[in-house]
Design goal:
The chain is mainly beta. The protein has four helices and 51 strands. Helix 3 packs antiparallel against helix 4. The N terminus is likely disordered.
């Protein structure tokens, strides 16, 4: 009896251990002729030799009779539990009771898509459809994973007080996961406008939803991708977003300068300049009145990487200068730069001296500055040469050059003629014909010549006269011979003077006064080109010089030459009439015609 009880106890222990063992390793138990099999849960099904046994009651008790030497395959099944198998062998002294408990829970896990991997507590158990077992008193985390999908998981409990696991569960992977890698690795990754990481991030896209992914970095053009989990688009598992196109924010100073990219006007104000990989762009800032500034930005290997922002500063001023006359030369700081029109650059903080020069004009110099607190240079300037310059060269070199009655030089001089002015020029030297001309810088006159070369010729006023000594313009007292009566003497006087003068303007024997008309010479220098035509006029005046009883005549031969003044000539008349007293002046020479007049009077009257 004791042996039988001990054996029964060992058999129960083995059965209990077997219930928690491997599903595929059934344990052998020894049973008595009549054995009570009790299953738990009570509604579990009993199979003997793969045939269902329906003899059990609601308590899960099956009364079985085993013949001597028989062996039976016993299995207890119930959905949601791991089946327990036993090999029952009839043996003397075998157990009369055989409890079989289903303790290990089983959840049938189906993965969608079917190639997704199923994990239990981190251990891969397969794909498609797998049973996940939950031993008594334990917890199992079931996960279904597939690259490109968000993992779906559920925790199952097999312990008292916890919710019983479900019989089966379909783990459907619906939300997609895209791994985004950004280059450069510090670029920001944004999902629908919100930052989710730098360099690398996983983007979850729910079923029937779309995601807007942006990769951005200062100095680069953002990369955008629009991914949809709609069952139609083939979503990638990973995306490499390399920022290849550079972006430089260009500002200008002054801010209203226009920005040109590869000579295309992009407008004014700040501009984002795009530089595709492997290319370069020329950026230029232009503003009227400033020297354009440019810079080339590269997005090429081996070239300097562009900064994210850059300021093009227009510091140097530029002035469009025009000269008048149009063929005048323009010099900057003493160096000739062009003719007629040039652009002048005035560097920041500096000044330049600009001179416009043209032969025949007085040069004009102006200073333009680009300094703080100075007047801002105009966009364009015109320098008009209005004052003229004429050089006068005379032969002989000691001839006097007289301008408006003032001696300005001898032989050579430079004459500046202000705009709107005229000058009377006279070239004078004793023995030479006077040269007189007018130089005008006036719109209604012929412009002055750049240079006047004057070669003087002999003056006929000298070649046809003699130095008078004391003959001309001097009083000559002639004492009359006492043998002549006053009447005789007067008649002789008139007779001799009449030989020289056709008209006697006044004669009065009583008062002893005689005055001839002015007798002009022929026009002198009339045919000398450029010379002043002169007239020498001669007049004889006789007055009483006697005192007491002696008869004496005071005889004066007046010799005068016409002035060179332009006012003494009118119209086509090149010289004044002999009666224009204001146009004559004493001349210290006498026409040869009158050289012997005084002597003749003396011989006749003394």
């Amino acid at each position: 009896m004791k042996v039988i009880n001990y054996f029964s106890f060992v058999t129960v222990i083995l059965l209990s251990i077997t219930a928690h063992g491997q599903k595929d390793a059934p344990q052998t138990v020894y049973v008595a002729k009549d054995c009570t099999i009790k299953v738990s849960p009570a509604d579990a099904e009993l199979y003997i030799n793969d045939e269902k046994d329906n003899s059990g009651d609601t308590r899960g008790i099956f009364e079985k009779h085993f013949d001597k030497g028989e062996t039976f395959n016993v299995e207890v099944r119930k959905k949601g539990f791991q089946s327990v198998k036993r090999i029952c062998v009839r043996q003397k002294g075998g157990a009369s009771e055989c409890p079989i408990d289903l303790t290990t829970r089983v959840v049938q896990v189906t993965a969608v898509p079917s190639d997704a991997q199923i994990f239990a507590n981190g251990n891969l158990i397969g794909t498609d459809m797998q049973d996940a077992t939950i031993p008594k008193g334990q917890t199992v985390l079931v996960e279904v994973k597939k690259p490109g999908y968000r993992t779906v998981s559920k925790t199952y409990y097999n312990r008292d007080g916890a919710e019983d696991p479900e019989l089966s569960h379909m783990f459907q992977l619906e939300d997609r996961v895209v791994a985004v890698k950004a280059i450069p690795d510090d670029a920001s990754i944004l999902l629908d406008g919100s930052k989710i990481g730098e360099g690398h991030a996983e983007v979850v896209i729910k079923k029937d939803a779309c995601a807007s992914i942006t990769v951005e970095h200062t100095g680069f053009q953002s990369e955008k991708k629009y991914l949809c989990n709609n069952g139609v688009d083939d979503l990638p598992v990973s995306v490499n977003a390399e920022l290849k196109t550079r972006v430089v924010k260009i500002n200008t100073a002054p801010s209203d300068a226009k920005i040109f990219v590869n000579n295309v006007n992009m407008g004014n104000g700040a501009q984002d300049i795009v530089i595709p990989k492997g290319e370069s762009v020329l950026v230029e800032a232009r503003l009227a009145g400033y020297l354009p500034v440019s810079k080339t930005f590269y997005n090429k290997e081996g070239e300097e990487k562009p900064d994210a922002s850059y300021v093009l500063r227009l510091d140097d001023r530029i002035i469009s200068l025009k000269s008048s006359p149009a063929d005048a030369s323009i010099s900057v700081d003493g160096v000739k730069k062009g003719v007629g029109a040039i652009d002048i650059v005035v560097k920041k903080g500096a000044c330049v001296n600009v001179t416009v020069d043209q032969n025949g004009y007085a040069p004009e110099t102006r200073t333009f500055c680009n300094k703080e607190n100075d007047l801002i240079p105009q966009l364009s300037e015109e320098i008009k040469l209005t004052d003229r310059v004429s050089r006068i060269n005379v032969q002989p070199e000691d001839a006097s050059i007289i301008v408006d009655g003032k001696l300005v030089g001898t032989g050579s001089t430079e004459l500046k003629i202000p705009d709107g002015r005229c000058f009377d020029v006279e070239i004078n030297k004793a023995g030479y014909a006077v040269r007189a001309f007018q130089v005008c810088n006036s719109r209604d006159k012929n412009p002055p010549e750049n240079a006047y070369s004057i070669k003087m010729v002999d003056d006929e006023a000298y070649t046809q006269t003699d130095e008078s000594g004391d003959i001309a313009n001097h009083n000559h007292v002639i004492e009359v011979n006492t043998q002549l009566t006053s009447k005789q003497a007067w008649q002789k006087l008139i007779s001799i003077i009449s030989q020289y003068f056709d008209e006697l303007k006044y004669q009065d024997e009583g008062t002893i006064y005689l005055c001839t008309d002015w007798k002009p010479s022929q026009a002198l220098n009339l045919h000398a080109e450029g010379s002043v035509t002169r007239i020498i006029r001669t007049q004889v005046v006789v007055t009483n010089a006697g005192t007491g009883d002696k008869l004496k005549y005071n005889v004066k031969i007046k010799s005068e030459i016409s002035k060179t003044s332009r006012s003494c000539c009118s119209g086509e008349q090149k010289y004044p009439s002999p009666n224009q007293d204001e146009c004559y002046e004493p001349f210290p020479r006498i026409l040869r015609t009158y050289n012997d007049l005084i002597n003749q009077l003396q011989r006749s009257l003394q």
